[in-house]
Amino acid sequence: MAQVKGRPRPTRLTTKNQATIPVAALRKAGLRAGDTIHIEAIGPGRVVITRATDPIQKYAGSLTGVYPKGYLKKLRGEWRW
Length: 81
Hints:
By secondary structure, the chain is of the alpha+beta class. It contains three helices and four strands, in the order E-E-H-E-E-H-H. The radius of gyration is 22 Å and the shape is elongated. The model has no long low-confidence stretch (mean pLDDT 86).
């Protein structure tokens, strides 16, 4: 949150349930415009915002070198009818 003399400055929630997140808070959290986020209520008056991660993008390529060369191509060939 934006700081004023060491204290967070409040942000008003609009009638459309929208709030402006101060740039300083976004920078500190490492969030940028265009990021996809998850918003979760964790109790009365408390909300947590976290960056959404794509599990496919996160793990794509992580098993490189696990299978011997040509193994997957051979395995996929068995799927043909």
